[in-house]
C-alpha cells in the first residue's frame, strides 16, 4: 500500500499537537457518504488519544460523481483563511444530508463570514488550486477513494471502524515507545 | 491471478467498439502513450471508484499526452449507460465478442468468472508495454503506479509530440 508522499506542513489543517507521536491524515470528500460515516468516528478516535494524536484533513473531492464536493471544499478553505476551517468542516459533515450551496452560505453566516466574499471566492475558484494540490498529493500517495487514512505516513489498510483505527494508531504509539 | 504481459512486450493490437457506432483501434493512438485499464465490470462498486478516480485524474494523464482506455467484457450499451451515469470523460471499450478476446491476449482474463482482471498497462509511444500491474480483483489499484510510469516514459515522440488526426486506423 501507499506511503504519504507529501509531508504534513503548516499549510495543512491540523488538530492536536504538532509534536504528537502519531499523526493521522485523512483524505476526504465532503459529499462522500463513507466520509460522513467516518466523521464521528474520527472525533471519537481524537478524544481517545488526546494529545498523543495529531489529525490532518486533506481534500480529495470526486467532483464528477459528487457535484457539491468541490464547492464544499472551497468553502472550508475560505473559512480556513479566516481561521475557521474546522468549524466549517464540522458544520458540513454534521449536515451532510442537506449539503448544497444554501447550507454552505448558511454555515458561513453562522460563522460570521461574509456570504458575498464566499460567493466571490467560489465564483473565482480562489481556493481551487489548494484543493487540486491536496488531491494530486493524495493520488501520488496511492489514495484510490475516500475516506483514505495514513498513520504516520503509512496508508491504513483496515476499515475506518473505531477499533481498526485505534489499533493502527496504537501500533505506531508502541513502535515509538519502544525506540 | 493471471500472468499479465510484462514490460518490454509489444502491446497486442486490437479494434473494439467504443460507442454503439464507433470502433477504436490501438493503432489509432500510435505516437502517444496509452493507459489500458482492464476492469471486471461496469457498476460494481470497486471499479466504479477506480473509473471515477481516473476520471478525476484525467487532466494529469493528459499532461503526458496519454490516452486512457477502460476495457471490460460489458457491451456497448451497458458502457454507454455507465459512462453517462458516472460522467466518464474517457472511452470504455467493449471486449464483448468474442468475449474477452483482447483481455486474454494481455493475460488479463479471469476464466473462472468470465471477466477481465483489474490490470493496468502503460504502453509507450512505440506501442511497447512500458509498465504493467495486476491488482487483486477487489482492490482499486489507484493511479499512482500509472502516473509514476508515465513520468518515467522517455519524452520523445513525433516532432510536436502529438498525433493530430486518427489516420492510422488498422
* CATH superfamily membership of chain A: Glutaredoxin
| Assembly classification | heterodimer
Morphology of chain B: globular
What is the helix fraction of residues of chain A, given as a range?
Answer: 40-55%
Q: Give the tally of structural domains of chain B.
A: 1
The percent range for strand residues of chain A is 5-15%
What can you see in these coordinates?
The complex is a heterodimer of chains A (179) and B (170). Chain A has a single domain (13-177), classed as Glutaredoxin, CATH 3.40.30.10. Chain A contains seven helices and five strands. Chain A has helices spanning 33-49, 69-81, 85-94, 101-110, 115-123, 128-140, 162-177, and strands spanning 13-15, 22-28, 53-59, 148-151, 154-155. In chain A, strands 1-3-2-4-5 form a five-stranded mixed beta sheet. In chain A, helix 2 (69-81) runs antiparallel to helix 3 (85-94). The longest helix of chain A has 17 residues, at 33-49. In chain B, the strands form three sheets. In chain B, strands 5-4-3-8-9 form a five-stranded mixed beta sheet. In chain B, strands 1-2 form a two-stranded antiparallel sheet. Chain B has a two-stranded antiparallel ribbon with strand order 6-7. Chain B has helices at residues 45-63, 76-86, 101-105, 144-152; strands spanning 15-19, 22-25, 34-38, 67-72, 92-94, 109-110, 115-116, 118-123, 129-135. Chain B contains four helices and nine strands, in the order E-E-E-H-E-H-E-H-E-E-E-E-H. The chains are: A alpha+beta (179), B alpha/beta (170).
